[in-house]
């Protein structure tokens, strides 16, 4: 068994640990007991349930806890009002009390929806995240963002509700296809590009091993990412400042995903990989960073198999006017002006308010044609 690591998310009374390593799921029963729970509502999806639900239920039963399994259809479409209502009713029907626990077992969709359910049921019950994708382990399970999608965009309905514990069991990464690993790896590179050039260099050197499923490299990638996210979230839990940097590449990415239609053809991390390339290209175009830096970032992304232009992504074609209009809906915008995360160099991301609209429109036009 590989070494386990514990990273604390320091949020005062809402602090919690992320346990990283092979087999950490087996500690769930004692951890749930220590939190005072008698019953756990396990929310998962149809893809993850056959792989991990039995083990999760077993360790809880062995610790004397009752369980209820609630299975969502897999895919982004489950972050809907309809599924939210169905899951809330199912959790209430199983008699969950305030001291009991919701367990989110799955990727980002499950974590976001289950966390939202936990945040509003009975005005808030505790929950544990058990992320089973690389993307969820390095990003979405940590930091307390929860929610569902609206007709107008992704994650527009939700709240901050921190988990009590995150169990990032790296054994769950073994069954992931390479596209899923790559999608998560985009977020690892992102932390390096934000403020940690050494992490970006590590990611550039170890991308191939991570995508080949090297267990030790993946565990290091998860631990380094969680430490990076812990620093940012502890400084700005509710995204009034530095946490916005975690959106590097995401404004472009969300626009690409909206254009692709959330039908599974374009994975979130694939869109983020391309979004980071576009953010560095646009930073260079506006004179914030050297052209050579943007080229270096794109070379590393391309070496890990990311498309660095929209035309290289699945789910297209991408219309520049549609991309701009999606970027105009972004949650970070203020006073009708687009906010972007741009960079002065590798590890030097910054929040750029009032992005010049005409320059952005021309940039998107050029990017969509290259
Ligand atoms: N995934 C971005 C954040 O948690 O703030």
The low-confidence runs, each spanning 5 or more residues with pLDDT under 50, are none
Order of the strands making up the biggest sheet:
1-2-9-6-5-3-4
- Estimate the mean pLDDT confidence: 96
Report strand %: 15-25%
The count of helical stretches stands at 13
Largest sheet: 7 strands, mixed
How would you describe the overall organization of this protein?
- The protein is of the alpha/beta class and 370 residues long.
- The protein folds into 2 domains: 5-175, Rossmann fold (3-Layer(aba) Sandwich), CATH 3.40.50.1970; 178-369, Dehydroquinate synthase-like - alpha domain (Dehydroquinate synthase-like, alpha domain, Up-down Bundle), CATH 1.20.1090.10.
- Helix content is 46%, strand content 17%.
- The chain has helices spanning 28-34, 49-62, 81-93, 108-120, 134-140, 178-195, 197-211, 215-235, 250-260, 268-285, 291-303, 320-327, 357-369; strands at 5-9, 16-21, 39-45, 66-72, 101-106, 126-131, 145-150, 153-160, 165-169, 340-343, 349-352.
- The protein is globular, with a radius of gyration of 20 Å.
- The site of glycine has 5 residues, from loops.
